[in-house]
Design brief:
Rossmann fold; 2 domains; alpha+beta; six-stranded antiparallel sheet; single chain; globular
């Protein structure tokens, strides 16, 4: 099987009979055991850095069992039709000597790839291991494609299933993930919601709260922690809509220019806007400018979240690599950032949650190493995402001390 046979132009994937309807909860939308040629069903091999190495493979010589194998590049599924903000369950088996990746990429009705995705690590296993993940379709998404990518060693994948599921099933899955990680002991401060009165009223009384998360890939990962369904369980009168509006490696230093909030914030009509991520460049003025621009055109409440996941040295490297200032000066900027961003939030009368501090305390108290929560040096894996989600749930969750 040649590379030219495997690599198919992405624009043709929707023409290969791979589309399935979004369906009702429990409906199976994609099923692939790879016993028949997957390319005829719309699976394609995609090059990574100019090369794809993969195969529709046999389990052993003379065996009838078949699976997908990838060494370089990705195997990509046919398109599956999704409902915006609907939840879906992905199940499959994999085998690899080291970690690999899976991802869900979303497309609008005209075929445009959306920035927000669901990207995660696959734990390496020399024997076939079963996996279960839940993901939420983006606002405006019409279809999703699932990708599988090898890392340092070949990755084998089999028995891929995608089905629509209801929100209680998502919460149950999130509970299973959380049960396998160290518990979050974070205790939030009383009175932390004083600048979010309408947000908290909607959570308690309903009927709906729309949260828009603005930021980068870290904000994207945090958005993939199922916090919407967990908040609905804590506040059963409210339906929570969580909309992820992100651009990789992009912070308020980019969003503040060229009226970009008109594309990334205002169309979604948020009740609550969260500004998050690690790509703000420690530029408190840029965050203040974005807040002011949003305030001029929207009455939404605003919550600023400090950057989390990455080690402090990443911030120092950020300045050094961009030659913006000497390292000693960069360190001073970083050390003064918490008080400066706090001052910006006080002046603008928006809420601030130092999620970075809560994350660092959680990891420090955990018996697991920092890397156990990560899929790479900067981004969280499923464990890290759900730890962040539980930290945020405690921050938003009913506070017995306040009589909630």
């Amino acid at each position: 099987m040649s590379v030219s046979q495997l690599i198919v132009c992405a624009c043709a994937t929707g023409l290969l009979g791979g589309l399935a309807m979004a369906g009702s909860p429990g409906k199976l939308l994609l099923s692939a055991d790879f016993e028949a040629d997957p390319r005829k069903a719309g699976w394609v091999g995609l090059a990574d850095r100019g090369e794809f190495q993969g195969a529709w493979a046999k389990a052993a010589e003379g065996s009838t069992g078949r699976f997908l194998r990838v060494e370089k590049g990705h195997w990509q599924s046919p398109s599956v039709t999704v409902e915006p903000l609907g939840y879906y369950r992905l199940r499959f088996r994999s085998k690899a000597a080291a970690n690999g990746y899976w991802a869900a990429f979303f497309y609008t009705a005209d075929g445009t790839l959306q920035q927000a995705d669901h990207y995660d690590a696959l734990q390496g296993s020399r024997e076939w291991a079963r996996h279960e993940y839940c993901f939420r379709a983006n606002e405006g998404a019409a279809t999703v494609q699932i990708r599988f990518q090898a890392r340092r060693y070949p990755l084998a994948v089999d028995d891929v299933r995608v089905e629509r599921i209801d929100r209680p099933a998502v919460a149950a899955w999130a509970d299973r993930v959380y049960a396998a990680i160290p518990p979050v002991e974070f205790t939030p401060a009383a009175g932390r919601w004083k600048l979010l009165p309408r947000t908290m009223h909607r959570l308690r009384k309903g009927p709906k709260l729309r949260i828009v998360a603005l930021g980068d890939s870290i904000a994207n990962d945090t958005s993939n922690a199922c916090l919407d369904v967990l908040l609905e369980r804590a506040y059963p009168n409210c339906r929570v809509e969580w909309i992820t509006s992100v651009r990789s490696s992009t912070g308020c230093g980019w969003y503040r220019h060229e009226n970009r909030i008109a594309q990334y914030v205002l169309p979604y009509k948020p009740d609550l806007l969260t500004i998050a991520g690690i790509s703000n460049g420690f530029d408190h003025d840029a965050i203040g400018d974005v807040i002011a621009q949003v305030r001029a055109k929207s009455d939404c409440e605003i919550l600023v979240l400090t950057g989390c996941i990455h080690p402090r040295v990443a911030g120092e490297i950020y300045f050094a690599d961009n030659a913006r200032m000497p390292l000693d000066e960069a360190c001073e900027v970083i050390s003064k950032y918490p008080e400066r961003i706090a001052a910006v939030c006080r002046k603008a009368k928006v809420e601030l949650f130092d999620v970075r501090k809560a994350w660092d305390e959680y990891v420090l108290a955990s018996p697991k190493p920092h890397a156990w929560f990560l899929r790479d040096p900067i981004h969280a894996n499923t464990r890290g995402k759900h730890a962040l989600g539980r930290i945020l749930l405690r921050w938003f969750g009913p506070d017995q001390r306040a009589g909630q």
